Amino acid sequence: MKKIALLGALALSLLSPLTMAQEAKALRIGIEAAYPPFAYKTPDGNITGFDYDIGVALCEEMKVECKWIEQEFDGLIPALKVRKFDAVLSSMSITEERKRAVDFTGKYYATPAKLAMKSGAVMNDVATDLKGKKIGVQRSSVYDRYATDVFAPAGAEIVRYSSQNEVFLDLSAGRLDGTIADSVNIEDGFLKTDAGKGFAFVGPDFTEEKYFGEGQGIAVRKGDKALAEKISAAILAIRENGKYKAIQDKYFSFDVYGK
């Protein structure tokens, strides 16, 4: 009996390194799949979009398996902290506030925020032109924080939603006067659709670093510098080998990486 137990223990000791190696080759990535064209669902239920394709290219570069885990945006950082996944690749802006909670890779794209309202609307001065307006934002986003700090004191009512798609639905239905969000997301996810007819961008680009950060990066748990550096190196590699441009050209007609 002791011999059988010893053989069993030996077998486990031999299998454990293999199992650990297999697990180490998988990168669990959190993503919100309701943010076109960056991440959204196809009719058959699969995730696609710029963020998703970039993640696949990064995993190929690092020679690891991508394991995608869906999560609403406002739950991404809490879920990362409790180890539901290893990284967040979901158009997350690199801000000083978030850096206190997580570590980031270098940016993988950077696009400005914009305000969208009914065509013909004018916004020359936030302090007067947004008074009494209902502005929809995605909860816990940088756009939520900006609208709360800048638009609300000007007299705007800030209405928060779990996803930007929900914002677009209420904007189209006339329950909102406008929304502030990523310019590409507004254009591709709303203005170019039937629901977005009769709406347009209003006012300037919003790029204040205090709110909108240094671009969009991939978040990892605080202190996991090794993973952040590994992913950052992979971002640079796919930019150099042409994979990044191929993915970018699939979704956009301009450079989203920025300066």
UniProtKB/TrEMBL annotation:
Signal peptide: 1-21
PANTHER family: ARGININE-BINDING EXTRACELLULAR PROTEIN ARTP, MEMBRANE-BOUND LYTIC MUREIN TRANSGLYCOSYLASE F
Location of the Solute-binding protein family 3/N-terminal domain: 26-255
Naturally occurring in which organism (per UniProt): Phytopseudomonas argentinensis
Pfam families attached to this UniProt entry: SBP_bac_3 (PF00497)
CDD domains registered for this protein in UniProt: PBP2_HisJ_LAO (cd13703)
Protein family membership: Belongs to the bacterial solute-binding protein 3 family.
Primary site of residence: periplasm
Keywords in alphabetical order: Periplasm, Signal, Transport
A GO CC annotation given for this chain: outer membrane-bounded periplasmic space
Protein name: L-arginine-binding protein /L-ornithine-binding protein
Subcellular location: Periplasm
